[in-house]
Design goal:
CATH topology: Jelly Rolls
CATH superfamily: q2cbj1_9rhob like domain
Distance between the termini: 50 Å
Largest sheet: 7 strands, antiparallel
Strand content: 15-25%
CATH class: Mainly Beta
Number of strands: 12
Shape: globular
Structural class: alpha+beta
Number of helices: 9
Radius of gyration: 18 Å
Length: about 300
């Protein structure tokens, strides 16, 4: 039996936005300090819905991942799989999903002790990978992504019950104001914005190229931007962005000659396992939403073998 839906969306008529019904930081207050983040960072995450760490990894650490993406672009079998999404205009790679299963190097990165430690602190315990992907925008041709809340999609189409997930975005190339950096609306995670329009069957086949269903109204976006503004974290390859699953975000097309490639890992709490979709005819494929109850991630210590 499906549990009560606190976040009704994808309806034929519009519904008003309302305050979220889940905490932003999920640790018990008495255990709030059990992790690498201090009060300033925890308060900023609660207030804004994201944390930005410029130059978190060295360029040398992330360069091999960009090279691996180039190799994938020459793998015809992979390019013809459902997990590779093509740009709607150019046909170039737009997204490659299930990266932590395609590449041991990417899998190792999901368990990086510094990143996973922060995520576990914010989500209040063990986590697993709900989804992983590379989003790529080639120079002069990479299309943008419309405004959306990831949680609204994951709730409606995957059956994610609560707002207890975080995306980690690692910049594989420099992100600047010209090549389509991610834009966020600070504070937008405090409200759930229902979206009008019933979810078509297998909506993912078109929505991953151009999203129509699951996009907030312009009136709601205007109100939230008037209150919180828009920010676009920019920095060199190796920078890290952690953002809460309900933070509204988008990106423009790449109008520059420079590529913009970002790696995304979605961490979901083990206490927030997927149920049946709340507003879709059937669940999306496993490469978009892991429903196999994977084991909690364990920290990867890169120095363990040297001891």
């Amino acid at each position: 039996m499906q549990e009560k839906d606190d976040y009704v969306s994808r309806t034929e008529t519009s519904r008003p936005r309302h305050p979220r019904r889940d905490p932003v930081v999920h640790l018990d207050p008495a255990e709030r300090w059990n992790g690498p983040l201090g009060e300033v960072a925890l308060s900023a995450f609660e207030r804004d819905g994201f944390l930005w760490f410029e130059g978190f990894f060295s360029p040398d650490r992330v360069a091999p991942f960009f090279d691996e993406l180039a190799q994938m672009s020459r793998d015809e079998k992979l390019l013809n799989s459902d997990g590779v999404i093509r740009d709607p205009n150019s046909g170039a790679i737009r997204s490659v999903f299930d990266m932590h299963r395609l590449s041991p190097r990417f899998d190792e990165l999901t368990r990086d002790a510094r990143v996973l430690g922060m995520v576990q602190q914010l989500l209040g315990g063990d986590v697993y990978i709900h989804q992983s992907r590379i989003n790529d925008k080639y120079g002069f041709q990479g299309a943008g992504f419309d405004w959306h809340s990831d949680f609204e999609t994951w709730h409606a189409e995957d059956g994610m019950p609560r707002m207890r997930a975080i995306s980690a975005s690692i910049m594989l190339t420099d992100n600047n104001e010209f090549n389509g950096p991610l834009m966020l609306i600070p504070g937008s995670h405090h409200e759930f914005v229902p979206c009008q329009g019933v979810t078509p069957d297998q909506n993912w086949k078109s929505s991953l190229k151009m999203q129509d269903v699951g996009v907030p109204s312009q009136q709601d976006l205007q109100a939230l931007v008037n209150r919180g503004g828009i920010t676009a974290p920019k920095g060199p390859a190796g920078s890290l962005l952690l953002f809460e699953c309900n933070t509204l975000h988008a990106s423009n097309s790449n109008m520059s000659p420079w590529p913009r490639s970002n790696l995304f890992f979605v961490y979901n709490s083990v206490h927030n396992r997927l149920v049946e979709p709340f507003a879709a005819p059937r669940p999306r494929p496993a490469f978009l939403a892991d429903r196999d109850n994977p084991e909690p991630l364990e920290l990867h210590d890169p120095y363990a073998e040297m001891r």
